[in-house]
Amino acid sequence: MILIYTAYSRGYSLSYIVKEMPMSSSPQHKMTNSRVVLKFGGTSVADLDRIANVAEFVKLEADAGYGVVVVVSAMAGETNRLVDLVHRAIGTGISVDSNLREYDAVVSSGEQVTSGLLALTLQRQGYRARSWQGWQIPLKTSDGHGRARIASIPDDVVGAAVDSGEIAIVAGFQGITEEGRISTLGRGGSDTTAVALAAALGAERCDIYTDIDGVYTTDPRISSNARRLERISYEEMLEMASLGAKVLQTRSVELAMAHNVNLRVLSSFADPKEARNGALQPCTVICSEDEIVEQHIVSGVTHSDSEAKISLMTVPDEPGRAARIFTELAAADINVDMIVQSAAKTAKAANISFSLDEADVARAQELLATLKQDIGYTDVVADRNVSKVSVIGVGMKSHAGVAATMFQTLAERSINILNISTSEIRISVLIHSEYTELAVRALHQAYGLQEMAETS
Amino acid sequence: MILIYTAYSRGYSLSYIVKEMPMSSSPQHKMTNSRVVLKFGGTSVADLDRIANVAEFVKLEADAGYGVVVVVSAMAGETNRLVDLVHRAIGTGISVDSNLREYDAVVSSGEQVTSGLLALTLQRQGYRARSWQGWQIPLKTSDGHGRARIASIPDDVVGAAVDSGEIAIVAGFQGITEEGRISTLGRGGSDTTAVALAAALGAERCDIYTDIDGVYTTDPRISSNARRLERISYEEMLEMASLGAKVLQTRSVELAMAHNVNLRVLSSFADPKEARNGALQPCTVICSEDEIVEQHIVSGVTHSDSEAKISLMTVPDEPGRAARIFTELAAADINVDMIVQSAAKTAKAANISFSLDEADVARAQELLATLKQDIGYTDVVADRNVSKVSVIGVGMKSHAGVAATMFQTLAERSINILNISTSEIRISVLIHSEYTELAVRALHQAYGLQEMAETS
Known about the structure:
homodimer, alpha/beta, VC0802-like, eight-stranded mixed β-sheet, six-stranded antiparallel β-sheet, 16 helices
C-alpha cells in the first residue's frame, strides 16, 4: 500500500506538499514483472470501434510481456449526458454542491460501462482481462465528493492480477470514501487515476492516450506553426496544464512529479498496426528537468479565455483595505490571480483590480456588494472580455530577458497589458480577448518555438 | 442478517426449498418503526418527469411515518441499450455466457443512475435520501453471474438508515458475489431485490409499482373482459408469473411466499395527489391462500407464445430410450415441459414429442442430432408455431370438473390440444398459435372470470 498525499493547489500558484513511501521500500516491485499503465480518454473510447482500436494498443503491451493496467474514461459524451440528468433532477437555482454524493453515484457509472466493454473486447480475442471499479481496488479518496483527492491505493490485488497475466481494466475518475460512498476526482480525473496507479504499482511508464499525439508549443488551432515537444519537464507541464493546455489534468502532473512517474502523451488515433510493426509512435515524454538534455528557454505559449477582471474603484488608501478584500474572497473559495493597484483620480484613494476565473465573477460581485460599506469603494466593474496569455519554460530560471521579449513583442503589436503575474518558470499577462490569437502567434514566433521544435 | 435460500426452479415444475430465520427471532424488528419497501420498474422511472412522480409516492409513505426503502430499476430502454453494447462488444457467434462478469458490470450501471437521480429528486424537496448500490448494502449473491441468486442481506445498515428517517434508494437487480464482483439477478430481478429487502427488514408490506394497476384474470390486450383481481394467492401468482403474466419475476413471488411478505401490485401511473387525499389506489394483493376469504375455483387464464414443440419420430419402443433423451436434455440445461408418447406407424416404435422454450430449440436440435444413432429415431421435427394456454386456481384442489370444462370449451371451438400438463392448481395445454386469442377469450368466459371479478 502506498499512501499518496497531494496538496490541493489553490489557483495557479501551485505548491506541492507531497510525502511518499519510496517505491524501492516495497521489495515486491523488484520481484515482479515490469508493469505499464495505459490511460484512454473519452474520445479514445467513444464507440465500440474506437474501443476495438484501444484493445490493439493494449494487446501490444500484453504481447510484449508487460503486466498491463488500463484506465478508461467514460465514452465521449456520456459524462455530459449524466451530468445533465443530475442537473435536471436537482432543478434550476439549486447548487449541485449539496448533493455531490449522488452526483458521484450517477456520473461514475460512465466509466463502469467502458471498463466492462473493453474487458469483453479483450476477452473475445482470447486475452484474460477484467474490469475494476474504484471501490473494488479499493482506490480510497477524501470525502470531497465531485473533486475528491486520492488517499491511498493498495498495490497488492491489482498488482497480483496483472503479474498473473490478467489485464486490469480500471474505471477511471472514481474511488471510494472512508464512508463507503462512490467519489469522483473531478474533470480529467482519469489522468490522475492512471498516474496514481502507476505510482502505486511501480509501473515502468504511464502512457496517456488521447486525441492528439503529444504536448504542443502552443494551441495548434491558433498557430499552424505549433510543434509537438519531444520532452517537457513536470514543472513546465504543470504550468501548461494550469494555464489552458487541456491535455492533462493538473493534479495528475503533480502526482507524476511527486512520484517520478515516467509519463508519455500519445494518440490513440494512430494506427496500432504500425506500432506493432515497430514504428516509433510520436509522443511527448514528461519527465524531470535533469532528464532533458537540451533545455530550451521557453517551451510553450498558452492561453486561457475563461478569465475575467474585476476592478474596485476609489478604494480609500488606508492599511488593511486590500487585505480585507482578498481575505474575504479567499474565504469564499474564490481564487484571485493577478492583482494591480493604481492611483485613483481622487486623492488618498486607489483603484484595485484583480483577475479571476470567469465562473466565479457572479459570486465575487455578490460578495463585494456586501462589503461596499466596509471597504468604502465607489464602484465595482467586471470585465469578462479578457484572456490570459503565458509563456512557460524552465530555462527562464537562468536566462534573463524573457520578460522583456514578451513585453516588447506585445508592444510592437499595440497589445495593451492589463495585468501581469509571474512564477519562476512562467510569465502571464492579461490582455483584451480580441488580441489573444495575435499575441499567441507573435510570442510563438518571438521565442523561436517553431524552429526549436523542428530541430529538437 | 437474514439468510435467504431459494431453490432454483427448473422449468415450470416449481419446487421451493426455503429455509428462513423467522422474522420474530430478531428483536430489533419489534423495536423499530414500521418499514415499507416500494419498487418502481423501468417504465415508472423512464425519465425525470416519471421519477418526479415516483418521488410523490415515496413522500406519501415517508410523511406517514414509515421507514421507506425504495428499489428502482434502470430507466426504460437503458438495460436494453447496455445489453446491446455488450453483445456488440462480444461480437457475433460468441455466447455472452463466458463473459457474464463483465456483462453484469456494464448492465448494473443502469440502476445505479436511477438510484442517484431519485435520491437527488427527493433531496431537492427537502427529504433525506441516499442511494445504495448492491455492493454497499451489501446484498450478497451466488456467483451465477447474469442470473445470480440472493444469498444474504444484512438488515442493520439500511435498516438503521431508514429508521433514522433517511429514505433508502436501492439500485435493484444487482448484488455482489463472494469474490467481490458485481452480479445481476436476471430480467425482472428488481422485484426480487424488493421482496428480499422486505423480508430482511421485516417490512410491513412490499409494494410493486408498475405500469398496470394489478394482476388481471387474463391479458387485457387479448380479452377486454379481463378484470383486475383484488387478491391472489402466492401459489396462483407463481403459476401466473411462470406462465406468461409478466407483472412479477417468478423468483420474487417464491421469496414472498417463503417469507410471507405482504405483496401488492399497483400502478405508478396513478395520480399521487389522489392517493394523498386518501383515495384508495386500485391494486392486487398477493397473500397466502388462507387470507383469501372468497376463494374462486379459477383465478386466471394465461398464455405464453415463446413455446415450441419437438417431435422425435419412430423411436424404438425399448426401455431406457425415452429416459436417455430427457436425461441428456436436462444435462444440457434444457427445460422440457409437456411430454407425449404416441404409437408410431411402425410396429414396436413410438413417436415422442415434448414442448420447450422457443429459445432452446436450436440447442436441443443440435443435441438430438448427436444422439440419433444411440436413440435410433428416424426423424426430428420442430414446431415453433405453438402456444401454451393455462388456467390457474387454488380452487382446483377441491373442485372437480375444471379440466373437463377446459377440454370441452376448446373442443367446441375445434381447437386441437397437442399436449397437456397439470399441477395441483393449474392445467396447461399446448395448441397451435393461431388459436391462442380465441382459446384465452373462450376460457375466460367459460370459467366466469368476468363476473367474478366484477363482484369480488
